[in-house]
Amino acid sequence: MRSDRRFFMQIAGSALIGTALPGIAQAKFEISPARAREVRFLGNENAAVTVAEYFSMTCGHCGNFHRNTFPEVKEKLITTGIIRFELHPFPLDQLALQAHALCRVLPNTSYFKMVDVLLDQQENWIRSNDPVAKLKQYAKFAGISSQDYDTIMSDRAYLEAIVEMRQNATRDHKVQSTPTFVINGEKSFSGAMSFDEFLAELNAFGI
Question: What's the CATH number where 47 sits?
């Protein structure tokens, strides 16, 4: 689990310094605080159990959970309508903020596919000599040019809305590390757990 640490955000007034990827359709993106705050979820909208995951795009444990555990969660709990699964940004650093900002300008279907790609290939862009350039390459798969990317990252109100979501999670749910899961706004637990460990946490809610 990555521990929460002091988070300094430096939003500059100026911009920061193809071909389609399978599963990510080129779609019109939107840069606005409202789009940033949209609740992104998979599964039954009216499920009795809602799991809200607070994650950072640069967190290795978050990547591990999404690569190794989430596919089974999706197969057995989400697509079957047992749970509603939400993703909430909790960026632990500036690079994570940019990755979240890239994903959240996209409509819901493309959002989840971009998150999947970036977490699946996390080491590829995080460890790159120029991770921002790598993120720009992924952005092109969704029809977002390098100039579009710079425009997204220079929109102060949009980025601040994402940071505010992190701050609200700390205030409302005492989130301090990633990944943290909050069940029905009541119970929380953290860590890149196995499917069986994850399922055991849901037992109190009749699953």
Answer: 3.40.30.10
Looking at the 3D structure of the chain, how many domains does it have? 1
pTM score of the predicted model: 0.87
- The single-letter code of the amino acid at 25 is A
- pLDDT, residue 101, reads 98
Spell out the alpha helix ranges (H) of the chain.
33-37, 60-68, 70-73, 94-104, 108-120, 122-126, 131-141, 146-153, 156-173, 195-201
Q: Which two three-digit tokens encode residue 202?
A: 């849901």
Q: Is residue 67 part of a domain?
A: yes
Tokens of 1: 């689990």
Dihedral sign from CA coordinates of 126, 131, 135, 138: negative
Identify which of 204, 200, 167, 168 has the alpha carbon closest to the alpha carbon of residue 184. Answer: 204
Cβ contact 131:94 at 8 Å: no
Instruction: State which residues form the domain around 125.
Output: 34-205
Say if strands 83-89 and 187-190 run parallel, antiparallel, or are unpaired.
unpaired
